[in-house]
Amino acid sequence: MAALDRVKVLVLGDSGVGKSSLVHLLCHNQVLGNPSWTVGCSVDVRIHDYKEGTPEEKTYYIELWDVGGSVGSATSVKSTRAVFYNLLNGIILVHDLTNKKSSQNLYRWSLEALNRDVAPTGVLVTNGDYDREQFGDNQIPLLVIGTKLDQIPETKRNEVLTRTAFLAEDFNAEEINLDCTNPRYLAAGSSNAVKLSRFFDKVIEKRYYLRDGNQVCHFS
Hints:
Helix content is about 30%, strand content about 20%. It is α/β, with parallel strands linked by helices.
């Protein structure tokens, strides 16, 4: 069997938001029993059928790079992480729906990965928000995933999800909210599964099929 082509997707977000549990669920459709802190980076692989059910269907490896979530400002920490940001094809931004700070930090994470050669100074504008125009020309597909949905009381879910909905708009990305301890949130045919498949298709298209908006030949 010929080796499958692959794409690299970073999984970024603060420590404790559930990145490792999410990656395990995405790759194995199973709940991670004993999640632990990620030191450096861990990589797992998901098999994805591009344009499933069409004549263009083709199987790819999706490499999910789970990057350790320390948000320390030390230059050495950022420099160490920068090596993981090379040759990326897509980014999954993960935040904890019960932790407002983890949502706000997604701007910092995305800017760090997309502008890895640029110092983060000057990113903040005067009112304390990030300059969202910095994401306007981004060509890397993004997906925003909120975790720990089960920990939000039903009476407060609309309020929380309304507050976090702006993230997807700012990043020009689709949004998935779930509980990583319940595989049904990514069940085949569900809206979340469709969004996830659409994101991976977009990542693959950017890597293998599109160049400057035009289709290019893809050699197997």
